[in-house]
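Database export, one record per block. Field names are fixed; values are copied verbatim from the stored entry.
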Amino acid sequence: MSFKERFFRLVVNHRKLVIGIFLVAVVFFGLSKQFVKVNYDMNDYLPDNTSSTVSLNVMEEEFGSGIPNARVMITNVTVPEALTMKEQLGNIEGVTDVTWLDDAVDLTIPLETLNHELVEHYYKNNAALYSVTISEDRRIDSVNQIRNLIGQDNAMTGSAVNTATATQNTTKEIGRIVAIAVPFTFLILILTTTSWFEPILFMASIGIAIILNAGSNIFFGEISFVTNAAGNILQLAVSLDYSVFLLHRFMEIREKVDDPKEAMIEALCKSTNSILSSGLTTVIGFLALVIMKFQIGPDLGYALAKGIVLSLITVFVLTPVLTLYCYRLVDKTKHKSLLPKFDHFGVFVSKGMVLMAVLFAIVMVPSYLGSIHNNFYYGSSNIFGNDTQLGKDTAKIEGTFGKSNSYVLMVPKGDFATEKKLSDEVKKIPQVNSVLSYVDNAGAEIPTEFIDDDTISKLISKKYSRLIITAKTDYEGDESFRVVEELRKIANFYYPDTYYLAGESISTYDLMDTITSDNVLVNLIAIGAVFLVLLISMRSISLPFILVLAIETAVWFNFLLSYFVGNPLFYIGYLIISSVQLGATVDYAILLSNRYMEFRESFHKKESIQKTIAAVTVSILTSGTAMTVMGFLLGNMTSNGVLRQLGMLLGKGTLCSIVIVLFVLPGLLYLFDKPIQKTTKGITLLNDKSKNVLEVITYVDEK
């Protein structure tokens, strides 16, 4: 008796113990889920040694606050009213700093005599624009209090507002998505199964696995908003077919074996290799994200890989037990298949498979080239579109004051002459609107002893002088990144390796450097690891190459569609989908190729293709349709741009994989049948001559 059989006998013989263990685990992790913290700030996932992260830490330590992370505009106010509003904003708990016109000029002097351009940066058309710094740990409360203070007629924007809005909106939206996704999945299962009770059995198993995974994230302490939003949906879509495959094999064996327990043990033994192979490739695809320096990758990779492992444990331990308790209900609720047989579809595919393989070869290289030439967003400044409250507020502020972006430059204090040269050089950058610093506002010649403490504390600390630079650029983009490079160049000239530069654009620039450097390595590891697993499990050199190439081309084609549309992609979504689509949909290619090799032992190439397509289409459509629906639901029901795009890419990518697996892969298997035979160990396929001899023998016997 093999180890597999001994283990599965142990499971089915101790059904009550299994149910008890899972019940305790579900209660514990179901409660634990409520205490898992979710982080919505992408910049928090930059490596600790990134220059922008180090600069922020130094600023927090020296000045007790970070960079300005919100812009608040109040309309229809006089200067005295604007000063009163500044004081009220500063009194909100969590607001550590508010900067306005009075910090840049002396308001005892008539505005008409002051620098017109500088004044209009803060006060224009009776509207006041404040730069506000909000503490990270108070973002939601502070943003809500600011909104209550200024009302709906005024506007606010910035990274702190982005994060607070994402935190509140996404939680509600994910709840609605799940509420719709579950009935949709039930509908898919009803259409693709032959018992009214089977979908309940499937959903109970996968639902328990999802609860265990979501609750066990408490061991990580904190997860990203990407993991929180996409993790459950991906786990449901990806691992659904494991339970389907096991239960279908059990029902098939029950037609030959009377004892349900023995039938289940045999089903488990026969399906273990296929399920484990599919699960392992998916786990590896997700674990490839772990090597990313941008920490959202490891955050998502570990959580998703853990989810698939828990799904596999549930399928091999809990699902057999639930099935043995409920198989009579499955029998009593049997019905005719609601889907047609796919025999004719198999014939249809076989007629056009060579042409599809040729078209595949033609579009493969252009798909790759198009996929790497998309335009990208790297930070969080474009997460919310123009149709959202935040998008409308941003448009209001930019409509009055134009674009504005804050940078903070810290240099060793004491050398006011050099600081003045630095400030003058910074002002020469065309996009720079203003520089707020001690040497610009108090004057390099005035000793610090003659300046009030409030002004001093904003601009000079124990070790550093601070220059607050405002530029008329977006938070990210070519122009913004050129300003970052120019600021670093100037600062390094006057203060070689002793300056610190911080700001949302600085963090986004470092984010771009970090995640683009991750791309090649993540993809190579994902492809190489999946190839290795297939090489070992299939004992073939050519089959893994064909399967990985087919799914990778589906990934490239997915991004090619975005390239043609011309909408920029969030790079984090691009990177995640590159691994997730490969790891999740290569299962379809494995299933089809395995069945093809089985049929080739008894039938010639074309007939094997027809029978394979007829046999696997329902299974592929079950899992593929679920994943597609999950993706499009996420893409259409969230206001968070990163999650919306991640969902749309997942939905489109799954459709691309389904089309290539069902229409292109058969042609590749057909054309490379001979090389597959020569490079695959331990197979004996029926060749055409053998088929002809068998047909003659059969004909003579019949006569």
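Remark 1: The first strand starts at residue 37 and ends at 39.
Remark 2: Confidence is low (pLDDT under 50) at residues 444-451, 690-703.
End of record.
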